[in-house]
User: What shape does this take?
Amino acid sequence: MAMFLLVGGGGLLLLAYADRIGVWFGDVGGQQRNALSMAVMGLILSQVGLDGIQCMERGLCTDTLDADALQGVNAFFALQGSLGRVVGFGLGAANLGKAPGLSYLGDQIQILFLLSAFLLFLTTSTTLLTAREKRFIPQLYELFNASVTSSGKRALFGLKSLPKAVRLAAVSNLLAWSSFALLFYYGSYFYGSFIYGGDPEDTGVIDSIYERGVQSASFGFLLMAVVGSMMSLGLGFVTAKVGIKTMWVSTLAFAAATFLGFFFLRPGDRGAALALSACLGLPLAASYQCPWAIVTVAVRRSENSALYCSLFRSLSEVLPFALQGLIGSALLSVFQGSARSVFAAASVLMAAAAVHTYFFVLDVQDVEEYEEEI
Assistant: This one.
């Protein structure tokens, strides 16, 4: 986990100072080719670091806790994910450049990434210092035999041998997180250009209409995170009554309807856009708990549990963010820059996730019975 902390923190620092590093490497005037390269590298490193940390935490919990405790941990992960978004989107909505004691760190973006790096170090270090797990120390010959090729073969074997319940849950989760990826990457553009009617070319203009729309989007995402935090507190109780699968299907269908609501908004519907953003807090919180409740039960008895958790997250939660650029760019190109088309696609993807979950995904009880039969 320490390695992922260094990678993720380094990526955030690259994002914070990409423009300055670009100047050091020869960027002159309006040419920012090197700065763009640094920003892309920082984005990749930060994503790898953050995803790696979460995979390690999931694997740690799966290896050290029993099935009953795992359900509580999944609910706790949902709560923590929502609280993290409260902090992140809250900082994004605030004018950090005018905050006392922070202005010397740089502009709004630089301050935001620096604070993110500090919080990442603080929270992950707490886990590293307090968590206790029996460490595996390989023999010398194993270190010599370890290679990128063998690691790749191990990951490929893990992919082929994923339990049935994990594969089915991964498909639904992939579709759901593809919708959320479109929201997180194009939501600010939707608010700034469509709801507020601003010009994206004015991103460098202080207090422009488009920038106010982007800040409003951060506030909408903040509301979504707050609602998600509150919903996370009651998810464990509700799922115990209605079942994990029923809860997941219901929230996916609700999210599909909410995304469709964005499509029918008109320019200037600021209050309605914020309300719809807040409504997405419930399905977002459920997406942190419901699929993982199924996966952790399915892999808890396997010696490859950490690998399975890592593969599940990589395939169903990380891959959508890697692919969203292709999907979103294609939609914007076909529909001539209409941001509403992105939300229509998100609604279709979320509806497909609900249908697949209803007909194919195994519930927690079914997973346990399937394990016993094996």
